Amino acid sequence: MRKSLKRLGLGILFGVMTTAALAAEYDLKMGMVAGTSSNEYKAAEYFANQVKEKSNGQIDIAIFPSGQLGDDRSMIEQLSGGALDFTFAEIGRFSIFFPEAEVYTLPYMMKDFDHMQRATWDTQFGKDLTQKIHDELGITILSQGYNGTRQTTSNKAINSVKDMQGLKLRVPTAPANLNYAKYSGASPTPMAFSEVYLALQTNSVDGQENPLSAIRAQKFYEVQPYLAMTNHIINDQLYLVSNDTMERLTPELRKVVQDAAVDAAKYHTKLFVEEEASLKDFFKNNGVTVTEPDTQEFKAAMQPVYDEYTKKNGKLGEEGIKQINAVR
């Protein structure tokens, strides 16, 4: 009887030790706006799994999608205050704190994602901005992934910038998107994303602009017969971590997080690049007419946007545009 109890006691003790060994030392949180069916969520899962595996289970990252923890601005602020560990945001979104960051969202400022990466990491302007984000907001940029290029769908063919004239174009309330609509000759119509499908279906608006992945996911192709490859804004997605979080980790675990974020950003980019490569054919097969207007006409029409940016940001803004164009 005593031996049985002893064995039972040892079994319980072993079970407790095993459970303790499996428990993560760091339970961290990652918030994001996108939902569970998005490429962003797939990449966030990849990041969390890499961190868990490479840290031998010492770090466990719980993901909170679909804006459960607030919008992107709210989550940036939570990172800054140390209340949240990880989130996504576009570099241009930091213009709410540092106005010069708006340059990354100006229509046709970025040639492609490779250019955006050079503009972020290889220019003094970009280095100074990322340092400000680190020092003044308490946020570290771990890596940068590609999040799609914005295109325009409509209820009529767009073959040139002239065809944008008077088009009621749904845009989010972001300055870059509003300016794209305004200076291309369209009538900017801000509207909640959830309302766009019905508005297109009933012709309350004539068109909208989004990356191809979003156009497919929201099934806008069902109610918009035309797609113009306007390539007006390149979207990126930064992998962000709170400085407070990084300071709590050992140097070895910081490297795990950094390396995992770099790998996840590559996977993130791969998801969007591969999807975009097949989507034009997908839309064509679903009855959508795809046009390829001359984007140089569109870019020329955006000159007032650049003038307004440099007026607001002075020499810093002028230098930003100069340096970014130099690495084009």
UniProtKB/TrEMBL annotation:
InterPro entries: DctP_fam, TRAP_DctP, TRAP_DctP_sf
GO BP terms, alphabetized: transmembrane transport
One Pfam family cited in the UniProt record for this chain: DctP
Keywords carried by this UniProt record: Signal, Transport
Localization annotation: Cell envelope
Cellular component annotations (GO), alphabetically ordered: outer membrane-bounded periplasmic space
Cleaved signal peptide residues: 1-23
Keyword Signal: yes
Chain residues that bind N-acetyl-beta-neuraminate: 90, 150, 170, 210
PANTHER family referenced in this protein's UniProt entry, alphabetically: PTHR33376, SIALIC ACID-BINDING PERIPLASMIC PROTEIN SIAP
Family: Belongs to the bacterial solute-binding protein 7 family.
Protein name in UniProt: Sialic acid TRAP transporter substrate-binding protein SiaP
Protein's organism: Fusobacterium hominis
